[in-house]
Design a protein that fits this description.
Keywords: Heme, Iron, Membrane, Metal-binding, Transmembrane, Transmembrane helix. Its cofactor is heme. Belongs to the cytochrome P450 family. It comes from Synchytrium microbalum. The chain is an alpha+beta fold and 506 residues long. The protein has 2 domains: 30 residues; 475 residues, Cytochrome p450 (Orthogonal Bundle), CATH 1.10.630. It is 50% helix and 10% strand. It has 20 helices and 12 strands. The strands form 4 sheets. It has a 5-stranded mixed sheet. Strands 4-12-9 form a 3-stranded antiparallel sheet. Strands 6-7 form a two-stranded antiparallel sheet. Strand 6 and strand 7 form a beta hairpin. Helix 7 packs antiparallel against helix 15 and helix 15 packs parallel to helix 20. About 5% of the residues have low confidence.
Length: 506
């Protein structure tokens, strides 16, 4: 080896060592992640999961990095918290705010509670929160009972056992409930199960397309969106049928709610305001300022009204329907839990008793089971995005204003540090007043942007479950594939079939 070659070799070795040291230190100073590739980030790793629609499994896999992790898609970084204490802090602290999700909500819900942040979000939430007060919760119970009883009557027309695609039936119930309680309209979705309507078919198709689009948005670099038809314009086009349907409801409500010269909330006392508006539903509160009422807290724009109604319709039906489907899938695979749950219902309600809201509160094992379903298989696995108002240290790393950080719900709710036998479906863990570690159980989120309708969702899911389990035994149809899948939300594979049999015949 001559001197020149030796010099080049030494320079190459030293350069390689320095580069390795630099990148090693750089990686040590960064939030841990899988290998991040230039331009595409973690897309190679993500694609292995998204090909199977199993994004939820990727989220769970990031728990291997400890309290905090991240993944990158293109130039977009997402930081995930796997730590309960820090999750509670960022969700509850006034030093953290919702983040502007920008393109993630474009064309879908930019102008809704999901898309808004800061003071605008606070004003919207304050204006809409009363639509989920005691009177509306009582109505949610009544409408859940009514729609479930209607479905039971359809099912009783079958002789012997019968097979149903349960998610479609649960979606029909939850759409009818949200329609009557939040929108003031009878949508007739349960009735359309036996006699499919044009609106029902359009809604089902467009909601499925939207879920797929949102999953692709999560895992595709922004520069590819125009080529993959993921832009805001594409989203509006894909949901135009549903938006037209909801716009017709808004127009009817606006025509019926003429408040011009009739209401001036600014001159009323708090008790008078409450009495005047207590029965207003979501749409009433959205359009009151445009219908002539004076003194309302917020006068919503047409775009805000459209997006808010769209989000309440989507989020208020899909999440509960998927949770109920998950419940029955878990009961079918855990028959001892099913039998214990039916015994609990029988001992309080009886085989032919009439369910009331007071009796519902006595079904303690049902409450334990529903909580465990939402811990074991949450349907919303990455929704609570926050950003600090000032540079803040989280798990030893500096997070700057504008950086998005989210709670990794499924990872925290399966963490053995907080849960005994976390991978076991075990409703009994919730008995005897069990309280989980703060921040370790967040199926509805927490803080300023927790689910505004969570109490309604809890009443609805428990009412539907109690009435169906009072009347039927359930099992999964043999020979079919059963797996979890993630689009916009996480649930079971489409078309999953259940076999129901009337308990009266047993």
């Amino acid at each position: 080896m001559n001197k020149a070659t030796a010099t080049v070799t030494v320079i190459a070795v030293v350069g390689t060592a320095l580069a390795a040291l630099y990148f090693s230190r750089r990686r040590k100073n960064q939030i841990p992640s899988d290998i991040i590739y230039p331009f595409v980030g973690n897309l190679p790793q993500l694609s292995k999961y998204t090909e199977k629609n199993s994004f939820h499994e990727y989220m769970l896999s990031l728990a291997k990095y400890g309290k905090i992790a991240r993944f990158v898609v293109g130039s977009s970084e997402r930081i995930l918290l796997n730590d309960a204490a820090e999750s509670a802090r960022i969700l509850l602290s006034p030093e953290w705010d919702k983040i502007d999700q920008g393109l993630a909500t474009d064309g879908i819900f930019n102008n809704s509670l999901i898309g808004l942040h800061g003071d605008v979000h606070k004003r919207h939430r304050k204006a809409l929160q009363p639509a989920f007060g005691p009177a509306h919760l009582r109505n949610a119970f009544l409408q859940s009972s009514k729609s479930t009883t209607q479905l039971i009557e359809q099912w009783k027309s079958h002789k012997g056992d019968f097979v149903v695609e349960l998610l479609a039936s649960m979606n029909a119930i939850t759409m009818d409930v949200i329609g009557r309680v939040a929108l003031g309209q009878d949508l007739g979705m349960v009735a359309s199960l036996s006699q499919p309507s044009e609106n029902g078919l359009v809604i089902k198709a467009e909601m499925e397309n939207l879920k797929i689009m949102q999953m692709k948005r999560r895992t595709a670099p922004h520069f590819l969106w125009p080529f993959l038809h993921l832009t805001g314009a594409d989203a509006r086009h894909e949901t135009q049928g549903v938006r037209n349907f909801l716009a017709s409801i808004i127009q009817k409500k606006r025509a019926a709610l003429d408040l011009s010269g009739k209401i001036d909330l600014s001159v009323l006392s708090n008790s008078e305001k409450f009495e005047t508006t207590t029965n207003w539903d979501v749409i009433d509160r959205l359009i009151a300022g445009n219908a002539g009422a004076k003194g309302v807290d917020v006068v919503f724009t047409p775009e805000q009204i459209s997006d808010e109604v769209f989000v309440f319709f989507l989020a208020g039906s899909d999440t509960t329907a998927m949770t109920l489907t998950t419940l029955f899938a878990l009961l079918a695979s855990h028959p001892h839990v099913l039998k214990k749950l039916q015994h609990d219902i029988d001992s309080v309600l009886g085989r032919d008793g009439v369910l009331t809201q007071e009796i519902l509160q006595q079904l303690t094992y049902l409450d334990c089971t529903m909580k465990e379903v939402m811990r074991f298989f949450p349907v919303a696995i990455q929704t609570q995005f926050r950003t600090p108002l000032v540079p803040t240290t989280v798990c030893g790393y500096t997070i700057n204003p504008g950086q998005p950080i989210a709670v990794n719900t499924s990872a925290i709710q399966r963490n053995p540090e907080y849960w005994q036998d976390p991978d076991k479906f075990w409703p009994e863990r919730w008995e005897n007043g069990f309280t989980p570690v703060s921040g370790s159980y967040v199926p509805f989120g927490n803080g300023i942007a927790n689910c505004i309708g969570q109490r309604m969702a809890n009443i609805e899911s428990r009412t539907v479950a109690a009435l169906l389990l009072q009347s039927f035994d359930v099992e999964l149809v043999e020979g079919q594939e059963v797996f979890r899948t993630t689009h916009l939300l996480t649930g079971y594979n489409d078309g999953l079939l259940f076999r129901f049999k009337s308990r009266i015949e047993n």
